[in-house]
């Protein structure tokens, strides 16, 4: 019931978030290299956030694939996740424009941390409504090392940003790399 | 006939509305706390409007779920609802930038009032075209206390905004809370 | 083949066009009535264009409903229509900001004229690929008085804008009203 | 598995990219011809990029049509393509605002080149996961003269832009024309 529409709405919001970020790459007035140079950190933060939203879209895609039943809690847990992700363009632009300064870098981590937490809540709601601990999804994510490590790394990166900002940025890149190694857990479960 | 496309178009517009609002959160030039502080009221108004659009999406989702027949009136009643909701980013931004001043707060209420009225018109059109008073939807929303209370609270909040603006804002928050308690009416009817 | 995706892409573009227009309603800095007043013509032009895009979406919806076969010509005729409609936010904003001055009003007419012409081309391509003159759609739009009258009125409005701009604006409103009276031709044909 | 959602997300992103570009056509303050004139190069670059995104959408549409199996590599190859296409609005705006100056023209070519390369990678991933060299798609694109010629012309245009910028622009227009002649390869294969 209504799964198609939940996916369509999420796809719409994620597609807009991922595309709207490029608007922070403001067209410069000059037409030479020096005009382009200040955009480099904005571009790098765009690449990082594009990958993060891509990871969320891909995992969201896999998670909803196993779902059979939709209820009110799932609708709102999903909106809650989209809320935190909708803040990504703002923190991306802020971090990029300020050359990865301490506070913007920390806030970027806070938004990523909250989005990851919202993802867990959504996962919990879907499992509850779709067979509980015996469900396909529950088994697939039982250990969920990647998710736990990501949460931990975000939590470390936030205070670290005020001490050594580049280390925090490196942690965000690390988490992205961890996830880019594709998550075959659910795929494998289905095949078995 | 055409129900899927009506849903897809509505989902698209609602996804854009909910995401475009975040563009009002303009990236500040500084990178410290004082630079972030003026954004607080804009952020709060964003959260409130995000929840409102989420509520509309969720209710719209449930209402269209029961619908079997689409006609011209439903298409236009739906566009009418989307028109008022498309003004939400504007009034949200105006209210946020002016720290919930009297006139923006009142105008926010006017847009919410008109959107709620447009929702009732859409509901009426769907019931008319899908079995009338004996239909599933008609029975599910027969009493519709939430809808009536919301309309009343908006109508109260609009003049109150000019007298005590924070009271009006509190009323908007109250309506959002009323709706966040999930509307199980239609879900229950279907199960029965 | 591929009809669903053609609809989805068109819905996406139309949803964005209709929503992006509201961004021309720039949040004013003051919070009183005088701050709101200069937005009135922008708002009026927004309402007019919202209705026009709504009409196109609704007619497009009906036209594609009868379609069975998609080919390359239809894809490109559809993109051509979307191109002209994508210019609507620009001419709407220009017309609104200049209080319906002569040249913006005329250009608004040019874009509407070209969009209407593109719609005819799309209609022709769909009829060609779906049974020709004997097809359901061909019969439904055989006379197409509304379409021809609209084209004529746009063609009149463009030069008239330089002479008496309000008359041209009145013609645009008139065309919108003509179409708002719902087009039951195709609906009726299907029922018969 | 999941093909519908991959298409929906891609359609969403492409629809937003194609529509967001029009935002670079900033509403001018005057209401006469001289106010409109500086927008001409921006408009021309918009037309060119609209056609390019249309070509990508159309080819993407045909390519995914033959696809039966989706896996993680396809998801990411698709996101990689969307990443490069998401930069099109930026380079379009930069090229338009600077009247097709050398560096923006060259960068436009770089983005087109990378998007074309990403398209090939996606094609390769789809073929690998859907039957390999014996698959319908593999046979349809076996020679792929258009694709190879485009890549070559982009590679030529990039250095040429620094020497004779108009020649580079002419090459971009030429590639667009090559592709506008519809690609019936896949269509023909399916019919056979």
UniProtKB/TrEMBL annotation, chains A, B, C, D:
It is found in: Membrane. Keywords: Ion channel, Ion transport, Membrane, Potassium, Potassium channel, Potassium transport, Transmembrane, Transmembrane helix, Transport. The keyword Phosphoprotein does not apply. It is a multi-pass membrane protein. This is Potassium channel. The chain crosses the membrane at residues 12-29, 35-55, 75-95, 107-131. InterPro entries: TMEM175-like. Pfam families: TMEM175. Belongs to the TMEM175 family. Signal peptide: none annotated. PANTHER family: ENDOSOMAL/LYSOSOMAL POTASSIUM CHANNEL TMEM175, ENDOSOMAL_LYSOSOMAL PROTON CHANNEL TMEM175. GO terms for molecular function: potassium channel activity; proton channel activity. GO terms for cellular component: membrane. It catalyses: K(+)(in) = K(+)(out).
